[in-house]
Description:
The protein is α+β, with helices and mostly antiparallel strands. It has helices at 18-40, 42-52, 61-89, 136-166, 169-174, 176-196, 209-218, 221-237, 247-253, 261-276, 280-292, 299-315, 320-327, 338-351, 354-369, 375-390, and strands at residues 93-99, 102-107, 110-115, 124-129. The protein has two domains: 3-7 and 222-390, Serine Threonine Protein Phosphatase 5, Tetratricopeptide repeat; 18-214, no CATH class.
Amino acid sequence: MNADSKFLRQPSLPKPSWLVKLWAGLLNVGIYAILFGVLARRQQIAFHVLRTGGVSLFGNFWRLAAAVTLILFLTTAVHELGHLVAGKLAGLRFHLLIIGPLRVTRENGKLRFGLHKTAAVFNGITGCTPDDAHNLSRRLLVFTIGGPLASLLQAAGTALIFFRWSSDVHFTNTMAWAVENMAMTAVFAAFFFLSSMKPSRYQSGLPADGGRIISLLHNDPAADRWCALAALNGADLRGRRPRDWDDALVRQALSGYDHTHDARNARFAAYQWALDNGRIAEANRWLEEAITIRPNLLAGTQVRLIWEKAYFTARYLNDPAQARQWLNQVRPKSTDQPQHLRAAAAVLLAEGSREAALSIAKTAMDARLCQSPTGVQKAEMDWLQETIKQG
């Protein structure tokens, strides 16, 4: 951090609650129980593989690996589709669905399919936003419960099928692969349920479903913050500029200051709101606080904040040397990232390179015009036009 960050408070680090410790203990007990059960029955399992021959998944490594991969993908899909269905029932608008490498978004009322580049092959995300704040806490609770409930039903259903099929010796011998698939699906879905019901956060900094559910049931400040963020996100996706956002929702989103993804998103939203309203000093404060909050592994958001800091430092603080330091901290993965281009144009302009700044600003404008504009993107396009006029 630079010298003008000295006024910042440091967000608090919460200590694990007894509920988090209990959940961790139960999950560990479940893992060790399964391992112990497999070891205790290793002779029976070996005999089962020999007896069923080529129809058992355990008789061929690649066949077993393919089955496990497919099951993990399906358990992820069931969980995320559970969120999606629950969000629809709660009156939320679908926006984003990621299941492993697959990505589905809604733009201008149309579904767009693509690939999601990630190392977390079996992770998923479901994004649904409200059109209004009516009963939002209850609606978000329904949306959040949908995923774990789907995983629990999948685990229970496949477990029942497994016990029914395994009682038939002839079926077990001739269709061993199907019985084994049901057993593994029940186990994986059960652990997916337990993992999602973690009453805190994941290592990435994102809240687990269990943490969200507890927060919403208690109606605590974290729940108020998430509800406000969901409402602001919905307004943004409907094309409402930050300057037109509800001031009360922005203030509500700023409740709580901790090492969480929500706390950082709230301050970044407040920065955009303040900047679009011409409150430069306030925007600077919220951007500084957003950069200070680092919820573990969410590096993508941190990169965007760094570029935003480079833009703000060049454009509003008129400090080209400091702005250049911020800009050079992270290199873009591609040459058409609008946030980086906007920051680079502002830095070049502050350094006196007007022609280069103008060229980059126009490239950034072209990149933005190819997208379906959200409220924030509309504001960013105006900021780009201001840079072009200055050049």
